[in-house]
Structures are given as C-alpha cells and as structure tokens.
Amino acid sequence: MLDKVKDFIKKQNMLQLGDKILAAVSGGPDSIALLDILTKLQGDYQCSLHVAHLNHMFRGEESLADAFFVQEYASSLGICVTYASADIPALLEDGGSSQEVARIVRYRYLRRVAKLFDCNKIALGHHRNDQAETLLHNLLRGSGPEGLAGMLPQHNDLIRPLLAVDRNEIETYCSEQGLSWRNDPSNKKSVYRRNKIRNELIPYLEEYNPQLVNILSQTAEIFQAENNYLEEVVWQKYTQLCDKKNETLSFNTGELNSLHPALASRVLRLAARKLSGRALDYLQVRRILEFSLSGQSGKMLELPGGVILEISYHRLILRKKSKPSRVERYRYPLPLTGTVILKEAGLAIKVREISTVQTYDSGDLLVVLDKGKVALPLTLRNRLPGDRIYPLGAPGEKKLKDFFIDKKVRVDKRDNIPLLVDAKNEIIWVVGYAINNRVRVTERSKNLLELQAVNIGDEC
C-alpha cells in the first residue's frame, strides 16, 4: 500500500520539497495510516509535520480518550499536536445537519491551525470508500456533475493521499505495521444518511458489482477531469459578473439571466460556496435561477448554510445571515507542552516548560509562572459567578468583576477573556492582563511554565 500511495502522490503532484504539512488526525485507522506514511515520506520531501485534532464533543469521555491517544501517538513520533474542542451539539441548536455542521467547523479549524503554524498543505485521510460514499450521497441529494466528482485528490491547500486505496487496504496496512487505532462506535449506527449509505446501501449494491467502490471512484475521476476544464470557464465568467463588497456578492440580474442555464448554475454554485463553504444541489440552484428571473425587487430567499438572497434594483445579492450575539461557555484542558485554540476569544495559547527566565517585552500576553506553585491539571475557561483573583503586585485578592473595572475592560468583552485556572479552580492567569501573585517567579523557582497568547483573529 505504501508504494501505491507514493505513486498517487507523485501522479497528483501533491507534495513538493520543503512543504509544511498539517495532518488531520482523528485517531481512526485512516488518519493513523496517513500520519505513518507522511512520516516515512519526510526524508524524501524534506517536509515538516504538525498534527491537528478536533474534539466534536459527540461522545463525551470517548472523545477525550481519542484526543489523548492522538497526543501520545504523535508525541512518540516527535510531532507536535494542536488540540481544540467544538461543541457541535450546542451549535445544532441553530439548526442544520450534525455531520454537515461538524464538517464545516472541522475545515475552518484546520485552516486556522495551518495559518497559525504556517502550513501550506492540509493532509486528510479520506480513502476510496469515502469517495464512493460521497458520490452516492451527492447523487441522492440531487447534485450535478460537480457533486458527482466527489472529493478532489488536491484542492487549494487540501490533499488526500489515501484516495488511491480502500478501507480494507488501510486496516491491513495498520495491522502489518503494528499501528493501533481508535474505533468510533457511532460509525456502525445507521442514524445519519452517510452511515446508512456506508452500512446498508453500499453492501446492497456490491451484490450487483463487488467492485462497486472502485467503479464509483473511477466515475468520480471522470467527472473531475471534465470539471477541471469547466471550472476555468466558470471562474472567468464569475470574476466578470460578480461584484464583491465585504461579505456580500451581487450580480446584475440581466447579465446573469442571459447566460446558458448550465453556466449560470455553476456561477451561482461558486458564489454560494464562497459564502457558506458548502455546495448547493440541483433543486436549490433551480430555485435561485427562478428567483433571479422573477426580478421582483425586495424579494428574499434563505439558503442552507446561512446565505440570504435578495433582489434589489436589478441586482441579485447574496450575503451571510447575521447571527445574534450570545455568550458561549467554554472549557479547554491545557497540556504542559503544546497549543490550544480558543476560537471564542480568537486566541491560540502556547505553553512549554522552561528552566530559565528570559527578558520579554510582550506585556501580559507572554508570561512565566512557577510550575511548583501550580496545582495541575490546568484548564482554560471564561468567567463564572464568584470568580476572584490575586493580581501580581496588588495588595490582596479581589473580585474578578472589580479587577475588570480597574482595568477598564468593557462589559461586553469580559465573557470572552480566557482565564487559566488550576485544579483548585483558582485563577492563575487572566490572559492579556495579569497573573496570580501566588504563582509569580522568585529566586527559588526551579521549574517554570512559559505561556503565550497569540492573536489569530475572530474567524472560526
């Protein structure tokens, strides 16, 4: 299998010398095999590796166990890991498919981590079975040629080296290489459409053709080749007709309606995908075309992915639906070495153990604590009622609310400020403002913790 993947990478020109690769590792056999193979290719391509893991919080303690497993495996290879969690169940309160919401959040997270660590490639563990499932899923939802092309081996910063092999080959490879992996029991439950396709539809269709997975993968490759050409034509027309201002796209309805319906459909799919990150099916695109042809100024239509369409003075306008602001409670475990993404605060918290203190000029975004005075483990969270802090240099303890008032922190900003708390739930660092006087470094301090907050913006 290793040779097959190597040949596929060369054929698709996926990797170049000096690439910085972010590997998305869930702990399953596909992502474990992916990381193992990328490690073996490091010498050939002189590339660096970083691992990202996202806890979707669907399976409680099992999800946490997955995260620890990935951390241990990557550490055994000498590869750094960035971990974060996303409360997908809470996000579903706003509506949407759980798997679709999880996919969108996952890709946004991976791109954020890639940007943070200057990675130019994001490696995903999708294989031929995933490709077959994707094609059937898109077929059932009414997708056109774009959807039937399935997942691309390489698209912008995303690469999928395992699309050359199937699930059985991957599990055999892991067993032969002595690699352990985590199993997700929810994959066996035919609750979601994707799982039903995997567990019921594909086994049924394989009775008619045992080579179904390979046949569907080949079909996807045919559509990919044709779409590559058509996308060039669509992009030219899109840039010619689309007027972009901030997060709003607009088209002259007369120009849009004059296009061949096939070309107009692809232009609109591209516009919607740029706003929401998700593709539209045939019925959704047909609704947009009919909407545009109506020409009724003031008319509005809402699409999946939070995209609003409206017609105003002969222009078709697409924009993101605004969301009401709300306080998101968050809680993240902080390892003694590594990085944690705080999407709610737009920060990445880096931590490492050091033995000596250097002189810094970064205010309270880069701090050093006496590890010996800290009750482990550490946790990052936002404020709770009753929180108190003994700020460095202050005469004593005070309410966190009073501390924020003293620092002139706006009320609407206070809930998103990260707090580092120890095992006793004592605040030892108000990120960006002050550390706890109790954990300050003294001449007798031996083991130190260096923590740094890096601003990564508010893009999720």
TrEMBL record:
Xref: CDD domains: TilS_N
Cellular localisation: Cytoplasm
Enzyme Commission number(s) of this protein: 6.3.4.19
Binding site for ATP: 26-31
Gene Ontology CC annotations of this record: cytoplasm
Reaction catalyzed: cytidine(34) in tRNA(Ile2) + L-lysine + ATP = lysidine(34) in tRNA(Ile2) + AMP + diphosphate + H(+)
Transmembrane spans: none
Keywords from the named record: ATP-binding, Cytoplasm, Ligase, Nucleotide-binding, tRNA processing
Chain ranges of the Lysidine-tRNA(Ile) synthetase C-terminal domain: 378-451
The protein's enzyme class: ligase
InterPro entries: Lysidine-tRNA-synth_C, Rossmann-like_a/b/a_fold, TilS/TtcA_N, tRNA_Ile_lys_synt, tRNA_Ile_lys_synt_N, tRNA_Ile_lys_synt_subst-bd
Origin: domain of life: Bacteria
Gene Ontology process terms (BP): tRNA modification
Known function: Ligates lysine onto the cytidine present at position 34 of the AUA codon-specific tRNA(Ile) that contains the anticodon CAU, in an ATP-dependent manner. Cytidine is converted to lysidine, thus changing the amino acid specificity of the tRNA from methionine to isoleucine.
Record remark on domains: The N-terminal region contains the highly conserved SGGXDS motif, predicted to be a P-loop motif involved in ATP binding.
Family: Belongs to the tRNA(Ile)-lysidine synthase family.
Protein name listed in UniProt: tRNA(Ile)-lysidine synthase
